[in-house]
Amino acid sequence: MGTDTKSYRPLAKSGITSVLRHDLPASLVVFLVAVPLSLGIAVASGAPLAAGLIAAVVGGLVAGALGGGAVQVSGPAAGLSLVVAELVTTYGWRATCMITLMAGALQLLLGLFRVARAALAVSPAVVHGMLAGVGVVIALSQLHVVLGGSPQRSAIGNLIELPQQIIHNHSHAVFVGLLTIAVLVGWTRLPQRLRIVPAPLAALFAASATAGALGWDVTRVDLSQSLSEWATPIWPRGDWHGIIGAVLLVALLAGVESLLSSVATDKLHDGKRSDLDRELTAQGVANMVTGALGGLPIAGVIVRSTTNVRAGARSRWSTVLHGLWILVFAVCLGWTIKLIPMEALAALLVFIGVQMVNVGHLRNLRGHGEIPIYVVTMAGVVLVGLAEGVLLGFGLAMLSALRRLTWITVRAKPESDGRWHVLIGGSLTFLGVPRLTSELRAVPAGAAVELDLNIDFMDNAAFEAIHTWRHDHERGGGTVDIDEIHDEWYAMAASGARMFPAKTPPRAPERWWLPWAHRRRGRPAPASPLVPAQHSPAEGSPAVPDLLAGAREFHRRTAPLIRPFLLAMARKQEPSHLFITCADSRVVPNLITASGPGDLFTVRNIGNLVPRLGAAPPDDSVAAAIEYATGALNIRTITVCGHSGCGAMATLLSGYEKAAELPALSRWLHHGNHSLARFIATESDGADDGPLDRLCRVNVIQQLENLRTYPQVDRLVRAGRLQLVGLYFDIGTARVHVLEQPPLTASPL
């Protein structure tokens, strides 16, 4: 469920109560997760163990207090471990701390210049591919430690050496590592009430206790030695080009990961959105502090941030307090760390590395054709190196974007009346001229052609190709009628007008599907039989009656085209679908299904709810529509269509708080209680964008089951004469999804 995040400010009495009730427990949960992860990342980075705890403390106290997100948690990030390990090998640990400090100064400068949004221009496919590659490298290297051996210098070397490690090493270290991984894997399968302790802490405790009780010969973590080795940062020695490159790499990777984590965290709660420039500035200050104190580089991390939100955090106090608990633990209870076997930390890193290869990201990227970018980036990081892999992925992303920007659509097909219809869409540049001319040559000489140009850019080469073909075709006895849908690029070029080098912003065309506000021209529409001209408002008046103006627009443009169809169906309707959807004004059934008059028998209500047969309070409006559709109209499909950001579902999540002064609405929404119960009983599969989005989807599936409580519906479904379909309309992306539904076995109540 979403949280109501609040800004960081002096706490009033009610604020203190909220902190004690919500943020304090959440901070303890995040603290228990952060300690083992920080130690493990320090091991993977080749840094002193204390460096991980220092970074976690600074991430909580500094980045948490100054950051732009209320619930984001910062600390050492696994995605930076390969960079740090290479820097430690090249320059030494103290010089690496100076590089971290300078990277923080660069982040601070970028944040002050308010360029944080520019970091979001990096393709998520590159970022996720980089993290997956880092995860593979970490898992392969630390798996050798788990098996009682030593990691090799490269991922390929680790992979080649792995069979020998598996065959020849069967020491106590192997048992500790396998036990740790077994607990981590099995912990997620336990009932929720038994998972009070975070999985990493439970795994390390089980491994440490078992190794101690059985007297296993393992390597122990020694934090005291790390603390005794602390010294101030020193200036790195070597080629200054390499040093500058290292500073840029740490600053950019940590900054991009933090900003993407902020954006992702915003989807988990309903509070104030993150200030990305402030977040980048805070990350810069935190990295300067951690570099000066001898800590690892800091970034916002999604795993701890997600844990923070799910634990109930409502303000940045949870993040700050978790840093305080880590500090108290390091000072007062640091001696307990020496009980942890190093092999257990290595096993924890193997588990983290495997989790970094997130299959859910592949599902999101597949629809956009960006899986090759992900794979190339991951392979580059594993086979060549982190910086090289990121550059390979970024280069492929740029080439892919260039290809899409210059990709054109050309379709030429004959119509039934002998005319040819040609559609050209996209950005017309010299790169598309070969395909353009090839398709246009398919139009036979002498044909009458309707050419639709739906383009947002046209260079001179593309104009010359179309213009030359048009003249040649007309000289051969054909005709060419050009209709420019998007912008008048061709007409301007043909008239000799000056063409601007960049794309023009799209002009809102006069199309029926545009909202009224986008079609106002500030002039009265011509009179119609429905509304006499003398009742039209004055020109430029802000009080234009949109509904009446829309009716005039219908009479003028649409009615002549649709009148023959309506005349044929004036005496009888024969819809094929019963379409049940929400009353939300942004959901237009005929638009999102590309249907016309006579196709959909539509029922709309708040929340697209189908009250179960005999439900209380009784409602006959939906039941009457179902009876009439199945009994009199013989419809073949019943579709329930939900949508993103549904206010009815948000009210259910709020416990009816948002409908406190709307008694009729509250009574109606009680029909959604089954959806809420189903939401609580199931867990997210990763396909949704947060609790509200998941409830909106779950609600559609529940309404399909509610339909089966009507005997006529259930009988027709069982006979194969009626199909139930669940749709979900994502308003922000204007995409319609077909929801997969479990087997519908409900029977009439």
Automatic annotation (TrEMBL):
UniProt GO BP: carbon utilization; transmembrane transport
One Gene Ontology molecular-function label: zinc ion binding
EC top class, as a word: lyase
Keyword Transmembrane: yes
Membrane topology (UniProt): Multi-pass membrane protein
Top-level taxon of origin: Bacteria
Gene3D superfamilies reported for this sequence: Carbonic anhydrase
SUPFAM superfamilies from the UniProt entry: beta-carbonic anhydrase, cab (SSF53056)
PROSITE patterns from the UniProt entry: PROK_CO2_ANHYDRASE_1
Record key words, sorted: Lyase, Membrane, Metal-binding, Transmembrane, Transmembrane helix, Zinc
Family according to the record: Belongs to the beta-class carbonic anhydrase family.
Protein name listed in UniProt: carbonic anhydrase
